[in-house]
Design brief:
With 228 residues, the protein is mainly β. The chain has one domain. Helix content is 10%, strand content 34%.
Length: 228
């Protein structure tokens, strides 16, 4: 396969950025607050049972194995995260075979890039609730929610002029995927049977949610096990 370049070197013109004042911006439907280091946008609950490989995809992505789905564009989110100061992986070689397989997952290095917090907010009986997205993901081995802690903004790649996150409709992966903008640093990232929705922690299917991504200092990068 031809070498790929980091998504931050994409030659395509970026989506328009609207300045809202007080260090706040809008990229498409994504709201940025540079004071808080956050990007927020709308999504919905997509899956309550079965195996998961993704946290978040577009409607044209792998919706049969994703916890959440959103209508925003991966290109727009990438521009928003770069504006916030995210530093994706600097790897320039082709990071994966055309088809991910068990051998690749077993030998894939830990994801590199900017750590971020991934929070979901929703309304329940008229009251706003929020939780780290880890609480909504169940690990079949530990029989607990995923360890609380950061996700890694790896930034996807360009292959032959195509932004892979946009092509695959892939925002955030539980099982390591170089096409995704965000990857999972936890144990189990090499196992496509390790993850499933933690239904008891989640609102009903199709519930609208707001996702907030907040950049973290690189020192704040170790997941912790929740007490549940």
């Amino acid at each position: 396969m031809a070498p790929v370049a980091p998504a931050s070197d994409a030659p395509a013109p970026p989506p328009p950025v609207e300045e809202l004042g007080n260090n706040r911006y809008r990229v498409g439907s994504i709201q940025l607050d540079k004071n808080l280091g956050t990007a927020s946008f709308q999504a919905r609950v997509n899956q309550l049972e079965g195996s998961l490989e993704y946290l978040l995809v577009t409607p044209s992505g792998s919706t049969h194995e994703s916890l959440l789905v959103t209508d925003i564009s991966p290109k727009q989110l990438h521009v928003a995260m770069l504006l916030l100061g995210a530093k994706p992986s600097s790897q320039t070689a082709d990071p994966a075979p055309g088809q991910l397989n068990a051998e690749f997952l077993k030998n894939a290095p830990a994801p590199q890039g900017s750590p971020l917090q991934f929070t979901v907010s929703w309304k329940e009986k008229g009251r706003k609730k929020s939780a780290p997205v880890e609480d909504w993901v169940f690990h079949s081995g530990t029989k607990r929610s995923a360890e609380r802690g950061p996700w890694i903004y790896t930034g996807s790649y360009i292959r032959e002029g195509t932004f892979l996150a946009e092509l695959d409709g892939c925002f955030a992966a539980l099982v390591h995927n170089p096409s995704a903008l965000i990857n999972n640093p936890r144990k189990g990232r090499d196992d496509d049977s390790a993850w499933e929705p933690h239904r008891k922690q989640m609102p009903p299917l199709a519930t609208p949610v707001e996702i907030t991504l907040r950049l973290l200092p690189h020192s704040d990068s170790q997941p912790t096990t929740p007490k549940n």
